[in-house]
Amino acid sequence: MSNERLTRDQQREAARAKAKAMREAQKKNEGRKRILTITGIVSVSAALLGAIIFVASSTIEKAEELGDGPATAIFNDGFRVGENLQVITSASQADPAVPNIVIYQDMACSHCKDFEVANMAQIRELVGSGKYTLEVHPISFMDASSANQYSSRAAGALACVAEKSPNNFVSFNEALFVNQPAGGTAGPSSEQLGELATQIGVTEKAAIDCITSNTWASWAKAKAKDLSVGKVPGTSLDFTGTPMVIVNGKQYQGDTKNPAMFLQFLQTEAPVAAQ
């Protein structure tokens, strides 16, 4: 009997030892699972972070590649023309001593056409001789009044010429206003705008392709949207619509169709340059 009880005691001890070993093994297994889970989460998080960084970097690189606008739009997103009616392609080429005529214009705006037709001949002479520079900002507000979004397409087309055929910028600007469609009607198609550019001397295929593909139309529209909620860059003036003509930080408020009145304004604001 004594040997039988001892055997049972040993069996119970063995059972307890086995149960303890199983519990410890289970705890170790659970610990390993927690470590693997945490490692997995960290790995996934690192992968996601890497993906986010990659996407962000790609987005930044793409934004830098596209830029904020045409490369020649370096004057508050405007194009500046100097002596001999040459587009200025570097800020270092702009002489700060030469007064600058700034024009914000919508290519579909009839009052802009009034100003351009009445004043461009004398502006050409003053700028071409080096007495002034001319800074043009083609923007788009009037797509809603066009049957085919002429406003943004024409503004973008002018930007294309400034970028790809800068020697023809002033001539194309004038041609667009001379051929301005009546309000509420469909303007020339992008292909017809390309043909108009060819007619005034644009021979660069890159310029025509830029026009027909509407490369800068959205840029012109976005520029107008930014202006509508703030000051005119470089001035303390609120943006009041197109045409907006500024010299030495002062806005021209006279008759858009009266070249003598505008010349008087220039002589008042920049008398040395106008003499």
Account of the protein in words:
The protein is built from 9 helices and 5 strands, in the order H-E-E-H-E-H-H-H-H-H-E-E-H-H. The chain is 56% helix and 8% strand. The protein has a 5-stranded mixed β-sheet. Helix 2 (110-128) links the parallel strand 2 (100-106) and strand 3. It is globular, with a radius of gyration of 35 Å. It has 275 residues and is of the alpha+beta class. It has helices at residues 2-66, 110-128, 150-164, 169-178, 190-199, 205-212, 217-227, 259-269, 271-274; strands at residues 79-81, 100-106, 133-139, 244-247, 250-251. Helix 3 crosses helix 5 and helix 5 (190-199) runs antiparallel to helix 6 (205-212). Mean pLDDT is 83; it is low at 1-6 and 35-67.
Indicate the topology.
Layout: H1 2-66, E1 79-81, E2 100-106, H2 110-128, E3 133-139, H3 150-164, H4 169-178, H5 190-199, H6 205-212, H7 217-227, E4 244-247, E5 250-251, H8 259-269, H9 271-274
Parallel strand pairs: 2-3
Antiparallel strand pairs: 1-3, 2-4, 4-5
Shape: globular
Seen as an oligomer or otherwise, the chain set is single chain
Q: How big a fraction of the residues is strand?
A: 5-15%
Major beta sheet, strand line-up: 1-3-2-4-5
- What is the CA-CA span between the terminal residues? 135 Å
Mean pLDDT: 83
What is the radius of gyration? 35 Å
Instruction: Work out the helix count.
Output: 9
The percent range for helix content is: 55-70%
Q: What low-confidence regions span 5 or more consecutive residues with pLDDT below 50? A: 1-6, 35-67
Largest beta-sheet details:
5 strands, mixed
Question: What is the N-to-C succession of helices and strands?
Answer: HEEHEHHHHHEEHH
How many DSSP E strands? 5
Structural class: alpha+beta
